[in-house]
Amino acid sequence: GITLQDSxxxxxxxxxxxxxxxxxxxxxxxxxxxxxxxLDIEQSRDIAVKNNSIIRNSNIGILLREGKRAxxxxxxxxxxxxxxxxxxxxxxxxxxxxxxxxxxxxxxxNWSCYNNITDNLLIDNSRGEIIDGFxxxxxxxxxxxxNMVIGNxxxxxxxxxxxxxxxxxxxxxxxxxxENKHGIxxxxxxxxxxxxxxxxxxxxxxxxxxSCNIWNTTLGNYYSDYQGEDENKDGIGDVPYSLPxxxxxxxxxxxxxxxxxxxxxxxxDIGELVKKYALFEPKEEAGTAxxxxxxxxxxxxxxxxxxxxxxxxxPLDVSSSPFQEVNDF
Length: 329
What we know:
Layout: E1 3-5, E2 8-10, E3 14-19, E4 25-27, E5 30-32, E6 37-42, E7 45-50, E8 53-55, E9 60-65, E10 68-73, E11 76-78, E12 82-87, E13 93-95, E14 98-100, E15 104-109, E16 116-118, E17 121-123, E18 136-140, E19 148-150, E20 153-155, E21 159-164, E22 171-173, E23 176-178, E24 182-187, E25 190-195, E26 198-200, E27 204-209, E28 212-214, E29 222-223, E30 241-242, E31 251-252, H1 267-277, E32 289-293, E33 296-300
Parallel strand pairs: 1-4, 2-5, 3-6, 4-7, 5-8, 6-9, 7-10, 8-11, 9-12, 10-13, 11-14, 12-15, 13-16, 14-17, 15-18, 16-19, 17-20, 18-21, 19-22, 20-23, 21-24, 22-25, 23-26, 24-27, 25-28, 26-29
Antiparallel strand pairs: 30-31, 32-33
């Protein structure tokens, strides 16, 4: 039952640390220039973090680690390494936040499941001091599953949206990704449902690597680089949109000729669509590398690159893009 309201926390090591708590309410605060975290909330539940300005915190603006039933709404989170991170955190709401000029805007990782991530503005997330021009609007990683990513706007990031490394059964619906190097990038995952989104004026609108995902239900997505025709004038392209990427055989069989408007499905309806369409078999994992070295069994696996780097993207040039404002969708 702790409330922190209309307060300024400036230049702290960590602005606020809560472990094992319940009923925290943080609202109307300015949390700036902290050396590690703005808010570090661990093993806690029933949290409300709303209408705060969380700026220039060196590591993470908001970390929710092993937390449940948090509502993180209407915050401004800017100039952090990680803006807002859910780490093994489930059944939370992340809504209407603005995240800009972070390295990662929103990071959902390490088995974070059943979260609603809706109506957030993810713009210009890149940090030149780490890797020039690299930054992610929203990233789902490390086996995070059954999350709803709905109605977000991602613009001016390296990857607007991305899902990678074992994530399954996530729904990506009614998002607008524009003027990123990649609108959405899928890497080493399966059974995620991506439909009803607008991918406009990205260097690569949509990309899939070593994955098996579903790109349409009775409707697909809109891609500004789609070259097909609509002979019968039903609003759906006659030729599927093939997803580029190594080892990708996926395609959107119902690509929209026009951008989608603001129509939304209910969460329960989206969940039923995931159950209906996400039917790829589990991936057969390769055996762990093992070898005998001077009588000692050595078991190893390749170390992942961090941060990821992709050489197949051209530099982003949006100087002549017809997309100007978020409301243009």
